[in-house]
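User: I'm writing a tutorial on reading structure tokens. Could you give me a worked example: one chain, its sequence, then its tokens, then a sentence or two explaining what the tokens reveal?
Assistant: Sure. Here is the example chain.
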Amino acid sequence: MITARGLRVRAGHRTILGGESATGGESATATGVDVEIPTGVVVGVVGPNGSGKSTLLRALIRSVPLASGEVRVDGDDVSRLRRREIARRVAFVGQHSDVTDPTVTVAEEVSLGLVRHRLRGQGAADRAVVEALTAMGVAEHARSPLLTLSGGERQRVALARAAAQRAPHVLLDEPTNHLDIRHRLETLSMLRSIAPTVVVVLHDLELAARFCDRLVLLDAGVVVASGPPISVLTPEVLDPVYGVRTRVHGEGDDLLFRFDLPDDHRSPTPTVPLERTSP
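And here are its predicted structure tokens:
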């Protein structure tokens, strides 16, 4: 289980996590953001651009400094754990790969997930890499340069690197970003095979409802709502956060949404180009 209490992250004079919400969210207090991620579930983090989703994930692994608050992983205070121990417990996959070397192969990239782990011999490490590549469906590309793969294939390699860490918890920051529909579905269908507990940042609310057990909705750096998708993804909750009119169809994990601009929205008056006059 991962628990966070009173999280606040600041950048200069600006609070980017744990501030006052424009919509008056349930956690909009000076105590910051509270989040509880039970073991064995997929938790989706959703919200508008700039709402603090990526910052929250990074705060959970101590990769951004906290102005206040506490994070515990399986009961242990993260601030008291070494980086190596955090990596043993929590794997993190960011939005972008840092690989720029055209000679780095897929297997080499995945093996980097094992750097902070003490496996018994090279054979054990090799098996861990092969198992992770196989689970993510990219074993055939093991010797291929990473940069020659498509965006969807590279994303699966990133998931394989996380799976190779064999950490009980995995944090994924927008793993479906820039992927087409098929690759989005393939990526999200693999979530439960990566680790027992997965926290994933998503923009697509329909996919969030379909693949996540619980959701955390952020707005302006605070938690507006959390719980099962059907209780979070309602017009009453979504409309003030996204500034739209929402209509929800379906039930359970088969929720479909239609979003419209609010009635009081006015399209900007088109600009009429000025006629040029002859000198």
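What the tokens reveal: The chain has one domain: 2-260. The chain has ten helices and 13 strands.
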